[in-house]
Amino acid sequence: MTRVVVVGDLMTDAVARARYALARASDTPAIVTMHGGGSGANVASWLAVEGAEVAFIGRRGADITGRNRDMELMGYGVDARLVMDPERPTGTCVVLVTHKGERTMLSDPGANAALSPEDLPRDLFAPGTHLHLSGYTLINEGSRDAGLAALDMARRANMSISVDCASSAPLERTGAEPFLEWTSDARLLFANTDQAKVLTGRDDAEAAAKVLTAWFPQVVIKMAGEGALWYSNGRPDSVHVAAEPVDKIVDGTGAGDAFSAGFLPAWLAGKPPAEALSSGCRLAAKAIMHLGARPPF
């Protein structure tokens, strides 16, 4: 199996699940739980539990939270290459889940915002290895140089590259044109329907995927309950796979990250797109049936 190097964000997710409709300017009963998070770290964790050889490059604070996140990654089997920031805390994301299951995220990147090119271990960038870059690294101005350096190092080492679009709102603030320019060396782009619309202006997932193949040889659009589709600029038709049925959606946080981790090993092994999509949907279904964005221990 191809070794995967993930460059991205490491966070602690504080998930607040409201029991009733939010009472503005007052109190709403909720269940609050703490979990390891960060899109890049989530992908690395799911890859590791699926049996992939994976290294994660990121930055954490010199705090207990950072130490716990570091130990979690190692517990999953991830080769965690985390630089300790002496000044900034480990990143935190408050995930507010309404009584109807709608999610809103409030993110403080903390140490993630200081990831620099010097933090990238040169030994991990080698031929035969795959780079997966979290879009948050490029969207955040403080870590952008590190993301661009990782892409350049991977290109020079003849590594295959995949990029995830991160989140629609910060992607829109950054701008579609710069993001597409920065990531044009990637062989594979992951986007959900909202992110694909930001990049292309198209509401239809298949239409957006076709537009995006002007920049990327292959595109995967994650469509939540409608499954996912793959499109290549070398084929006339897209490949679509339905989402796996689940008994109950417990927490959708990190489902897209789990999908990417399910898709990548099959894709890197040269499996048919439908098989890779099915693998991604399988892991996404597993993710939404428990609390938190990481695999259950």
From TrEMBL:
GO terms for molecular function: kinase activity. SUPFAM superfamilies: Ribokinase-like. Belongs to the carbohydrate kinase PfkB family. Residues 1-295 form the Carbohydrate kinase PfkB domain. Pfam families: PfkB (PF00294). It comes from the Bacteria. PANTHER family: CARBOHYDRATE KINASE PFKB DOMAIN-CONTAINING PROTEIN, SUGAR KINASE. Keywords: Kinase, Transferase. This is Sugar or nucleoside kinase, ribokinase family. It comes from Nonomuraea jiangxiensis.
